[in-house]
Amino acid sequence: MNAIYLHRQHQIKQQLKLQQIDNLLVFGFENIRYLSGFSGNAAYLLITSTSNYLITDYRYYERAKSEAHHCEVICRDRDTQTLGECIKGLLPSGLTGFDAAYITVPVWQEIHSQLQHVQITPIQGLIEAQRAIKDEWEINSIKKAAAIADIALADMLKLVSLGVTEKELATELDYKMKKLGSDGVSFDTILLFAKRSALPHGKPGDTKLNHQDLVLIDFGAVVNGYRSDMTRTFVFGEPTKQQQHMYDTVLCAQQAALANVKQGVSCHHLNHCSEEVLFAEGYQDYAGKGLGHGLGLFLHEVPFINSKTDYTLRAGNIITIEPGVYLPDLGGVRIEDDILVTESGFEYLTHAPKSFVLPS
């Protein structure tokens, strides 16, 4: 593990050097974890050309010392020293960047008041761009999370029965993932029946399952902080012609996009491949916006797959491909898989079957 974090720190320092930035203040917890290995919060990371400082307090000091790699851990006394004063005492001269997306205005104002002697500039997306290309350890963590989700779904589907509620099944699914070793849930599980399945990010409730209801399940597990994200849609019993048409169309849209995945392909091209199928079948007014997203320490991270993103896929990207259609009076269908982009194509990380019909 030491070598992994040393390599990441070296890479980010090289990027800083190219931009003629001398120091970097890191505030985002996921970015701190990526660069140091520390998995808690209430921490701040200062990277200089020669040193790395992880600033925390007594609550996390011992944990930080055991988790953080190639960092000097600083225990700040919050009663006697402000965060700005602590940073001031450690910060060398030169241009200092900071990841502005992860800090509140009041906290930044306090820090900045102590750094009048330093030239400061906001940095957007520098660490996230590096995180978009996953190393072997990250890939294996997401594979493990996806495998947990596959097994948990198969186990939970055995409990599907007439009259069961959305909330009951969602609770069982979350429990099974944790029992199988997940650190938690990747996000609040989405599990919806019938016309409620047309809510792309609806919350499970007390709705009971009836014959011919659509069942949309979007969920994920977490291993080492890395997330999986999978969606499957089912029908409880024999589908109607319209339900079957929706499902077949969405599956074809996903396959059309997947057929074009490989290093060098643009995200907006993948989005176009999927939309062509959905629009040709009359779902242009009911299709979800965007086809997918990167996956890692964040649930949604670079690259984003939509009509506007010109990001070109690279080997090592882990992305979701998740077309969907949502008809308010009938329900929704979404099919989502996690994949690893390779030079010549892709590798599935999620392997749950895509059978549509659940026997009633």
Q: Characterize the largest beta sheet: strand count, sense, and whether it forms a barrel.
A: 6 strands, mixed
The Rg value, from CA coordinates, equals 23 Å
Q: What series of H and E elements makes up the topology?
A: HEHEEHEHEHEHHHEEEEEHHEEEEEEEE
CATH class of the largest domain: Alpha Beta
Order of strands in the sheet with the most strands? 4-3-2-1-5-6
Architecture of the largest domain, according to CATH? Alpha-Beta Complex
Number of strands: 19
Strand content: 15-25%
Class by SSE composition: alpha+beta
Q: What percent of the residues sit in helical stretches (DSSP H or I)? A: 25-40%
- Summed up, the domain count is 2
The CATH homologous superfamily of the largest domain corresponds to Creatinase/methionine aminopeptidase superfamily
Amino- and carboxy-terminal Cα gap:
49 Å
- Would you tell me the overall average pLDDT? 97
GO molecular function: aminopeptidase activity; metalloexopeptidase activity
Pfam family, one: Peptidase_M24
Domain Creatinase N-terminal: 9-133
Organism: Pseudoalteromonas amylolytica
